[in-house]
Design a protein that fits this description.
heterodimer; A: 384 residues; alpha/beta; Aspartate Aminotransferase, domain 1; Aspartate Aminotransferase, domain 2; four-stranded antiparallel β-sheet; 11 helices; B: 77 residues; four-stranded mixed β-sheet
Chain lengths: 384, 77
Protein backbone atom coordinates (compact mmCIF):
# COMPACT_ATOMS: atom_id res chain seq x y z
CA UNK A 1 0.00 0.00 0.00
CA UNK A 2 1.22 3.46 -0.86
CA UNK A 3 -0.11 6.85 0.19
CA UNK A 4 0.82 10.07 -1.58
CA UNK A 5 0.16 12.85 0.92
CA UNK A 6 2.65 15.43 -0.33
CA UNK A 7 0.39 17.51 -2.57
CA UNK A 8 1.94 20.67 -1.11
CA UNK A 9 5.20 19.80 -2.89
CA UNK A 10 3.82 18.39 -6.12
CA UNK A 11 0.45 17.05 -7.12
CA UNK A 12 -1.00 14.92 -9.91
CA UNK A 13 -2.59 16.67 -12.85
CA UNK A 14 -6.35 16.69 -13.10
CA UNK A 15 -6.93 14.34 -16.08
CA UNK A 16 -9.08 16.98 -17.82
CA UNK A 17 -6.34 19.56 -17.38
CA UNK A 18 -3.81 17.13 -18.78
CA UNK A 19 -6.02 16.48 -21.80
CA UNK A 20 -6.35 20.22 -22.44
CA UNK A 21 -2.64 20.91 -22.23
CA UNK A 22 -1.17 17.96 -24.12
CA UNK A 23 -1.97 19.17 -27.68
CA UNK A 24 -0.01 22.34 -26.96
CA UNK A 25 3.19 20.35 -26.53
CA UNK A 26 3.03 19.51 -30.23
CA UNK A 27 1.75 22.77 -31.65
CA UNK A 28 3.98 25.45 -33.10
CA UNK A 29 3.30 29.17 -33.13
CA UNK A 30 4.14 32.05 -30.84
CA UNK A 31 1.14 34.04 -29.62
CA UNK A 32 3.10 37.15 -30.57
CA UNK A 33 3.14 36.26 -34.28
CA UNK A 34 0.85 37.30 -37.12
CA UNK A 35 0.18 34.07 -39.02
CA UNK A 36 -2.56 31.52 -38.49
CA UNK A 37 -0.67 29.19 -36.10
CA UNK A 38 0.28 32.25 -34.07
CA UNK A 39 -3.33 33.46 -33.98
CA UNK A 40 -4.47 30.06 -32.69
CA UNK A 41 -1.85 30.24 -29.96
CA UNK A 42 -2.90 33.80 -29.12
CA UNK A 43 -6.54 32.73 -28.88
CA UNK A 44 -5.59 29.92 -26.47
CA UNK A 45 -3.46 32.32 -24.44
CA UNK A 46 -6.24 34.87 -24.12
CA UNK A 47 -8.86 32.21 -23.34
CA UNK A 48 -6.67 30.99 -20.48
CA UNK A 49 -6.20 34.58 -19.30
CA UNK A 50 -9.97 35.08 -19.20
CA UNK A 51 -10.46 31.84 -17.26
CA UNK A 52 -7.85 32.73 -14.64
CA UNK A 53 -9.23 36.24 -14.35
CA UNK A 54 -12.75 34.91 -13.82
CA UNK A 55 -11.59 32.60 -11.01
CA UNK A 56 -10.13 35.55 -9.11
CA UNK A 57 -12.67 38.21 -10.17
CA UNK A 58 -9.82 40.19 -11.69
CA UNK A 59 -9.49 42.20 -14.93
CA UNK A 60 -8.09 39.87 -17.63
CA UNK A 61 -5.51 42.46 -18.71
CA UNK A 62 -4.02 42.23 -15.21
CA UNK A 63 -3.16 38.52 -15.48
CA UNK A 64 0.59 37.96 -16.00
CA UNK A 65 1.47 34.30 -16.57
CA UNK A 66 4.61 32.99 -14.86
CA UNK A 67 6.45 29.71 -14.45
CA UNK A 68 4.85 28.90 -11.12
CA UNK A 69 4.05 30.70 -7.90
CA UNK A 70 7.67 31.21 -6.85
CA UNK A 71 8.35 33.36 -9.88
CA UNK A 72 5.10 35.23 -9.26
CA UNK A 73 6.22 35.99 -5.69
CA UNK A 74 9.59 37.21 -6.83
CA UNK A 75 8.05 39.32 -9.59
CA UNK A 76 5.61 40.84 -7.12
CA UNK A 77 8.14 41.73 -4.46
CA UNK A 78 11.14 42.68 -6.55
CA UNK A 79 9.18 44.16 -9.45
CA UNK A 80 7.01 46.37 -7.27
CA UNK A 81 9.91 47.56 -5.14
CA UNK A 82 12.08 48.29 -8.17
CA UNK A 83 9.28 50.32 -9.76
CA UNK A 84 9.01 52.40 -6.58
CA UNK A 85 12.75 52.82 -6.15
CA UNK A 86 12.82 50.70 -3.00
CA UNK A 87 11.23 51.32 0.36
CA UNK A 88 10.28 49.59 3.58
CA UNK A 89 8.79 46.10 3.37
CA UNK A 90 6.43 44.61 5.92
CA UNK A 91 5.65 40.89 5.74
CA UNK A 92 4.01 38.39 8.02
CA UNK A 93 6.42 36.07 9.77
CA UNK A 94 4.64 33.12 8.18
CA UNK A 95 5.00 34.07 4.53
CA UNK A 96 6.15 31.41 2.10
CA UNK A 97 9.92 31.04 2.26
CA UNK A 98 10.17 32.27 -1.35
CA UNK A 99 8.39 35.50 -0.45
CA UNK A 100 10.72 36.16 2.47
CA UNK A 101 13.73 35.35 0.30
CA UNK A 102 12.54 37.84 -2.33
CA UNK A 103 11.98 40.47 0.37
CA UNK A 104 15.49 39.98 1.75
CA UNK A 105 17.00 39.99 -1.71
CA UNK A 106 15.19 43.18 -2.68
CA UNK A 107 16.18 44.84 0.59
CA UNK A 108 19.91 44.19 0.25
CA UNK A 109 21.73 47.34 1.25
CA UNK A 110 18.72 48.84 2.99
CA UNK A 111 16.41 48.03 5.89
CA UNK A 112 15.54 44.33 6.16
CA UNK A 113 11.86 43.41 5.93
CA UNK A 114 9.88 43.99 9.10
CA UNK A 115 8.17 40.73 10.10
CA UNK A 116 4.74 40.78 11.71
CA UNK A 117 4.07 38.25 14.45
CA UNK A 118 1.37 35.62 14.56
CA UNK A 119 -0.60 33.94 17.32
CA UNK A 120 -0.15 30.38 18.57
CA UNK A 121 -2.21 29.06 15.63
CA UNK A 122 -0.23 30.93 12.98
CA UNK A 123 -2.83 33.63 12.39
CA UNK A 124 -1.44 37.10 11.70
CA UNK A 125 -1.91 39.44 14.66
CA UNK A 126 -3.92 42.45 13.40
CA UNK A 127 -2.58 44.71 16.16
CA UNK A 128 1.01 43.76 15.34
CA UNK A 129 0.36 44.45 11.67
CA UNK A 130 -1.06 47.88 12.47
CA UNK A 131 1.93 48.66 14.67
CA UNK A 132 4.40 47.66 11.95
CA UNK A 133 2.90 49.93 9.30
CA UNK A 134 3.93 53.50 8.61
CA UNK A 135 2.58 55.94 6.04
CA UNK A 136 5.83 55.43 4.09
CA UNK A 137 5.62 51.62 4.01
CA UNK A 138 6.21 50.57 0.42
CA UNK A 139 5.15 46.93 0.27
CA UNK A 140 3.15 44.55 2.46
CA UNK A 141 3.11 40.77 1.95
CA UNK A 142 0.23 38.71 3.33
CA UNK A 143 -0.20 34.98 2.76
CA UNK A 144 -3.80 33.75 2.47
CA UNK A 145 -3.32 30.05 3.16
CA UNK A 146 -0.13 29.37 5.12
CA UNK A 147 1.57 26.46 3.33
CA UNK A 148 3.08 24.74 6.39
CA UNK A 149 0.56 24.95 9.21
CA UNK A 150 -2.49 25.58 7.02
CA UNK A 151 -3.65 28.77 8.76
CA UNK A 152 -6.19 30.73 6.70
CA UNK A 153 -5.75 34.44 7.17
CA UNK A 154 -8.58 36.98 7.10
CA UNK A 155 -7.18 38.81 4.08
CA UNK A 156 -9.96 41.37 3.81
CA UNK A 157 -9.57 42.57 7.40
CA UNK A 158 -5.77 42.62 7.18
CA UNK A 159 -5.73 44.56 3.92
CA UNK A 160 -8.18 47.07 5.40
CA UNK A 161 -5.64 47.72 8.16
CA UNK A 162 -2.94 48.31 5.54
CA UNK A 163 -5.13 50.73 3.57
CA UNK A 164 -5.82 52.69 6.75
CA UNK A 165 -2.25 52.84 8.09
CA UNK A 166 -0.18 52.79 4.91
CA UNK A 167 -2.43 53.94 2.08
CA UNK A 168 0.43 54.14 -0.42
CA UNK A 169 1.68 50.62 0.15
CA UNK A 170 1.45 47.92 -2.50
CA UNK A 171 -0.24 44.83 -1.02
CA UNK A 172 0.82 41.37 -2.19
CA UNK A 173 -1.60 38.54 -1.40
CA UNK A 174 -0.19 35.03 -1.75
CA UNK A 175 -3.02 32.73 -2.80
CA UNK A 176 -1.08 29.76 -4.13
CA UNK A 177 -2.60 27.39 -1.59
CA UNK A 178 -6.14 28.76 -1.86
CA UNK A 179 -6.80 29.63 -5.51
CA UNK A 180 -9.11 27.01 -6.96
CA UNK A 181 -9.41 25.38 -3.54
CA UNK A 182 -11.57 27.81 -1.56
CA UNK A 183 -13.07 31.24 -2.19
CA UNK A 184 -10.45 33.98 -2.46
CA UNK A 185 -12.16 36.18 0.11
CA UNK A 186 -10.41 39.52 0.37
CA UNK A 187 -7.83 38.90 -2.35
CA UNK A 188 -9.60 41.27 -4.71
CA UNK A 189 -8.58 44.09 -2.34
CA UNK A 190 -4.86 43.42 -2.93
CA UNK A 191 -2.72 45.07 -5.61
CA UNK A 192 -0.82 41.93 -6.57
CA UNK A 193 -2.06 38.36 -6.16
CA UNK A 194 0.12 35.25 -6.44
CA UNK A 195 -1.47 32.18 -8.02
CA UNK A 196 -0.07 28.72 -8.65
CA UNK A 197 -1.35 25.76 -10.62
CA UNK A 198 -0.45 22.90 -8.30
CA UNK A 199 -3.27 23.18 -5.80
CA UNK A 200 -5.94 23.29 -8.51
CA UNK A 201 -4.78 20.36 -10.63
CA UNK A 202 -2.43 22.15 -13.05
CA UNK A 203 1.37 21.75 -13.11
CA UNK A 204 3.37 23.22 -10.22
CA UNK A 205 5.36 25.07 -12.88
CA UNK A 206 2.32 27.02 -13.99
CA UNK A 207 1.23 30.19 -12.25
CA UNK A 208 0.33 33.82 -12.57
CA UNK A 209 0.66 37.16 -10.91
CA UNK A 210 -2.48 39.27 -10.90
CA UNK A 211 -1.58 42.94 -11.25
CA UNK A 212 -4.12 45.62 -10.40
CA UNK A 213 -4.17 48.17 -13.24
CA UNK A 214 -2.14 51.19 -12.19
CA UNK A 215 0.32 49.23 -10.04
CA UNK A 216 3.81 49.92 -11.43
CA UNK A 217 5.79 46.73 -11.83
CA UNK A 218 9.20 46.27 -13.36
CA UNK A 219 9.73 42.94 -15.12
CA UNK A 220 12.13 40.42 -13.61
CA UNK A 221 12.71 38.98 -17.06
CA UNK A 222 13.22 41.71 -19.60
CA UNK A 223 12.02 41.17 -23.10
CA UNK A 224 9.39 42.54 -25.41
CA UNK A 225 5.68 43.17 -24.98
CA UNK A 226 4.91 39.63 -23.82
CA UNK A 227 2.56 39.66 -20.84
CA UNK A 228 2.07 43.39 -21.02
CA UNK A 229 5.81 43.94 -20.88
CA UNK A 230 5.85 42.57 -17.31
CA UNK A 231 7.30 39.15 -18.11
CA UNK A 232 9.47 38.76 -21.18
CA UNK A 233 10.26 35.58 -23.05
CA UNK A 234 8.30 32.88 -24.84
CA UNK A 235 4.94 31.82 -23.44
CA UNK A 236 4.91 28.33 -21.90
CA UNK A 237 1.60 27.61 -23.57
CA UNK A 238 1.02 24.04 -22.27
CA UNK A 239 1.23 25.28 -18.67
CA UNK A 240 -0.82 28.38 -19.41
CA UNK A 241 -3.59 26.35 -21.06
CA UNK A 242 -3.47 23.92 -18.13
CA UNK A 243 -3.82 26.74 -15.61
CA UNK A 244 -6.72 28.18 -17.58
CA UNK A 245 -8.51 24.83 -17.72
CA UNK A 246 -7.97 24.24 -14.00
CA UNK A 247 -9.31 27.72 -13.28
CA UNK A 248 -12.32 27.03 -15.49
CA UNK A 249 -13.15 23.80 -13.65
CA UNK A 250 -12.53 25.01 -10.11
CA UNK A 251 -15.51 27.27 -9.29
CA UNK A 252 -18.11 24.56 -9.82
CA UNK A 253 -16.12 21.85 -8.06
CA UNK A 254 -14.02 23.38 -5.31
CA UNK A 255 -16.65 23.36 -2.54
CA UNK A 256 -17.16 19.62 -2.92
CA UNK A 257 -13.40 19.03 -3.20
CA UNK A 258 -12.75 21.02 -0.02
CA UNK A 259 -15.46 19.21 1.92
CA UNK A 260 -14.06 15.86 0.89
CA UNK A 261 -10.45 16.80 1.64
CA UNK A 262 -11.39 18.24 5.03
CA UNK A 263 -13.19 15.03 5.99
CA UNK A 264 -10.13 12.96 5.04
CA UNK A 265 -7.82 15.38 6.83
CA UNK A 266 -9.91 15.05 9.99
CA UNK A 267 -9.84 11.26 9.66
CA UNK A 268 -6.05 11.41 9.40
CA UNK A 269 -5.85 13.87 12.31
CA UNK A 270 -7.80 11.46 14.53
CA UNK A 271 -5.23 8.76 13.88
CA UNK A 272 -2.12 10.95 14.07
CA UNK A 273 -3.18 12.80 17.21
CA UNK A 274 -4.06 9.58 19.00
CA UNK A 275 -0.32 8.87 19.25
CA UNK A 276 1.04 10.07 22.62
CA UNK A 277 3.04 13.33 22.69
CA UNK A 278 1.93 14.42 19.24
CA UNK A 279 0.50 17.90 18.76
CA UNK A 280 -1.41 19.54 15.93
CA UNK A 281 0.24 22.70 14.57
CA UNK A 282 -1.95 25.48 13.27
CA UNK A 283 -5.63 26.21 13.73
CA UNK A 284 -8.02 23.41 14.66
CA UNK A 285 -10.04 21.92 11.80
CA UNK A 286 -12.61 24.48 10.71
CA UNK A 287 -12.94 27.71 8.75
CA UNK A 288 -9.49 29.01 9.63
CA UNK A 289 -7.61 26.00 8.26
CA UNK A 290 -6.81 24.86 4.72
CA UNK A 291 -8.92 21.78 3.93
CA UNK A 292 -6.07 19.51 2.86
CA UNK A 293 -3.31 20.45 5.31
CA UNK A 294 -2.33 18.57 8.44
CA UNK A 295 0.92 19.36 10.22
CA UNK A 296 1.81 17.57 13.43
CA UNK A 297 4.88 17.50 15.67
CA UNK A 298 5.92 14.22 17.25
CA UNK A 299 7.90 14.88 20.38
CA UNK A 300 11.42 13.37 20.58
CA UNK A 301 11.43 12.43 16.91
CA UNK A 302 13.43 14.36 14.32
CA UNK A 303 11.28 15.47 11.40
CA UNK A 304 13.36 14.29 8.46
CA UNK A 305 14.04 10.95 10.12
CA UNK A 306 10.31 10.51 10.56
CA UNK A 307 9.66 11.44 6.91
CA UNK A 308 12.21 8.84 5.81
CA UNK A 309 10.67 6.25 8.13
CA UNK A 310 7.26 7.02 6.65
CA UNK A 311 8.69 6.78 3.13
CA UNK A 312 10.01 3.32 4.00
CA UNK A 313 6.42 2.43 4.94
CA UNK A 314 5.07 3.72 1.61
CA UNK A 315 3.90 7.14 2.78
CA UNK A 316 5.02 10.28 0.94
CA UNK A 317 4.93 13.46 3.03
CA UNK A 318 7.29 16.33 3.88
CA UNK A 319 9.14 17.71 6.86
CA UNK A 320 7.07 20.50 8.34
CA UNK A 321 9.38 23.22 7.12
CA UNK A 322 10.66 22.74 3.60
CA UNK A 323 12.82 25.84 3.82
CA UNK A 324 14.97 24.46 6.61
CA UNK A 325 15.03 20.87 5.38
CA UNK A 326 18.49 19.43 5.63
CA UNK A 327 19.79 22.24 7.80
CA UNK A 328 18.73 20.78 11.13
CA UNK A 329 17.20 24.12 12.07
CA UNK A 330 13.97 24.86 13.79
CA UNK A 331 11.01 25.78 11.61
CA UNK A 332 10.82 29.60 11.49
CA UNK A 333 7.04 29.38 11.18
CA UNK A 334 6.71 27.25 14.31
CA UNK A 335 9.10 29.53 16.17
CA UNK A 336 6.98 32.52 15.14
CA UNK A 337 3.99 30.68 16.64
CA UNK A 338 5.86 30.45 19.94
CA UNK A 339 6.77 26.77 19.87
CA UNK A 340 10.02 25.46 21.32
CA UNK A 341 12.05 22.30 20.86
CA UNK A 342 11.26 19.47 20.47
CA UNK A 343 8.10 20.57 18.63
CA UNK A 344 9.94 22.94 16.29
CA UNK A 345 12.21 20.15 15.02
CA UNK A 346 9.71 17.35 14.78
CA UNK A 347 6.96 18.58 12.46
CA UNK A 348 5.76 16.56 9.50
CA UNK A 349 3.30 17.85 6.93
CA UNK A 350 0.62 15.77 5.26
CA UNK A 351 -1.06 17.51 2.32
CA UNK A 352 -4.06 15.89 0.70
CA UNK A 353 -5.43 16.32 -2.80
CA UNK A 354 -8.88 16.07 -4.34
CA UNK A 355 -8.35 12.44 -5.23
CA UNK A 356 -6.79 11.27 -1.96
CA UNK A 357 -8.58 8.25 -0.52
CA UNK A 358 -9.66 6.86 2.83
CA UNK A 359 -7.35 3.92 2.26
CA UNK A 360 -4.37 6.24 1.83
CA UNK A 361 -5.25 8.19 4.94
CA UNK A 362 -5.75 5.05 7.01
CA UNK A 363 -2.47 3.62 5.81
CA UNK A 364 -0.65 6.87 6.63
CA UNK A 365 -2.19 7.01 10.09
CA UNK A 366 -1.05 3.47 10.88
CA UNK A 367 2.40 4.06 9.44
CA UNK A 368 2.78 7.25 11.46
CA UNK A 369 2.00 5.48 14.74
CA UNK A 370 4.33 2.64 13.87
CA UNK A 371 7.20 4.89 12.73
CA UNK A 372 6.98 7.23 15.73
CA UNK A 373 7.01 4.29 18.14
CA UNK A 374 9.98 2.70 16.38
CA UNK A 375 12.01 5.93 16.33
CA UNK A 376 11.25 6.72 19.95
CA UNK A 377 12.45 3.31 21.00
CA UNK A 378 15.89 3.97 19.50
CA UNK A 379 16.14 7.71 20.25
CA UNK A 380 18.40 8.89 23.09
CA UNK A 381 16.17 11.95 23.37
CA UNK A 382 13.04 10.09 24.38
CA UNK A 383 12.20 10.57 28.08
CA UNK A 384 12.25 7.20 29.80
CA UNK B 1 -20.50 53.40 -30.92
CA UNK B 2 -16.88 52.75 -30.02
CA UNK B 3 -17.18 51.46 -26.45
CA UNK B 4 -14.89 52.05 -23.51
CA UNK B 5 -11.18 52.52 -24.20
CA UNK B 6 -8.96 49.46 -24.13
CA UNK B 7 -6.45 49.99 -21.33
CA UNK B 8 -2.72 49.49 -21.82
CA UNK B 9 -1.13 49.50 -18.38
CA UNK B 10 2.57 49.84 -19.22
CA UNK B 11 3.58 51.23 -15.83
CA UNK B 12 6.99 49.88 -14.88
CA UNK B 13 7.98 48.93 -18.42
CA UNK B 14 10.45 50.65 -20.68
CA UNK B 15 10.15 51.88 -24.24
CA UNK B 16 9.56 50.46 -26.74
CA UNK B 17 7.25 48.18 -24.71
CA UNK B 18 4.52 50.83 -24.12
CA UNK B 19 4.40 51.57 -27.84
CA UNK B 20 4.49 47.88 -28.77
CA UNK B 21 1.57 47.24 -26.42
CA UNK B 22 -0.32 50.18 -27.91
CA UNK B 23 0.27 48.83 -31.41
CA UNK B 24 -1.21 45.47 -30.38
CA UNK B 25 -4.12 47.03 -28.53
CA UNK B 26 -5.12 49.27 -31.44
CA UNK B 27 -5.89 46.14 -33.46
CA UNK B 28 -8.48 45.16 -30.85
CA UNK B 29 -10.60 48.30 -31.15
CA UNK B 30 -12.79 49.29 -34.09
CA UNK B 31 -11.99 52.27 -36.25
CA UNK B 32 -12.86 55.29 -34.13
CA UNK B 33 -12.19 53.35 -30.92
CA UNK B 34 -9.85 54.46 -28.16
CA UNK B 35 -6.80 52.98 -26.46
CA UNK B 36 -5.80 54.47 -23.12
CA UNK B 37 -2.09 54.16 -22.33
CA UNK B 38 -0.53 54.42 -18.88
CA UNK B 39 3.27 54.60 -18.73
CA UNK B 40 6.03 55.95 -16.54
CA UNK B 41 9.04 55.72 -18.85
CA UNK B 42 9.69 59.34 -19.90
CA UNK B 43 10.58 58.15 -23.40
CA UNK B 44 6.89 57.47 -24.00
CA UNK B 45 6.44 61.24 -24.37
CA UNK B 46 8.57 61.02 -27.51
CA UNK B 47 7.89 57.51 -28.78
CA UNK B 48 4.11 57.49 -28.61
CA UNK B 49 3.55 60.77 -30.56
CA UNK B 50 6.11 59.57 -33.09
CA UNK B 51 4.32 56.25 -33.49
CA UNK B 52 0.97 58.00 -33.91
CA UNK B 53 2.48 60.31 -36.52
CA UNK B 54 3.96 57.37 -38.41
CA UNK B 55 0.85 55.18 -38.30
CA UNK B 56 -1.72 57.92 -38.69
CA UNK B 57 -3.63 57.13 -35.50
CA UNK B 58 -4.73 60.17 -33.53
CA UNK B 59 -3.11 61.10 -30.24
CA UNK B 60 -6.14 62.74 -28.69
CA UNK B 61 -4.45 63.73 -25.45
CA UNK B 62 -1.34 63.08 -23.43
CA UNK B 63 -0.95 64.27 -19.84
CA UNK B 64 1.81 63.83 -17.32
CA UNK B 65 1.45 63.97 -13.58
CA UNK B 66 4.07 62.98 -11.03
CA UNK B 67 6.07 61.03 -13.56
CA UNK B 68 3.15 59.09 -15.00
CA UNK B 69 1.83 59.62 -18.50
CA UNK B 70 -1.75 59.00 -19.56
CA UNK B 71 -2.53 59.09 -23.26
CA UNK B 72 -5.60 58.49 -25.40
CA UNK B 73 -5.05 57.17 -28.90
CA UNK B 74 -7.93 56.94 -31.37
CA UNK B 75 -7.83 54.37 -34.16
CA UNK B 76 -8.35 56.22 -37.41
CA UNK B 77 -8.43 53.46 -39.97
Amino acid sequence: MRAYLDHGADAPLDPRVRAAMLPWLDRTGSPMGLHDPARAAADALEAARDQVARLAAWPPAGVVFTAGATEARSLAVRGALAARGGGRVVASAVEHAATLAACRSAARGSDPPLLVGVDAEGLIDPAALAAALEPETALVCLVHGQPEVGALQDLGALIAIVRDRAPGAVVVADCEETAGVIALDGAAEADLVVLGGRAMGAPAWSGALLVRPGTPLHPLIDGGPEEGGKRGGPHALPGIVALGEAARLAPAEMAARATRMAALRDRLADRVLSVPDVRLNGPPPGPRRLPGHLQASAGWVEAETLVLALAARGVACSPGSACTAGAGKASPVLEAMGLDAPWTHSAVLFTLGPRSTEAEVDHAGGAFADAVAALRRMSPLTPR
Amino acid sequence: MTGAPVLVDALGTWCPVPVSLTARAITRVPTGGLVEVWADDPLVAVDLPAWCHRTGHALERMDEEAGRWRALVRRTR
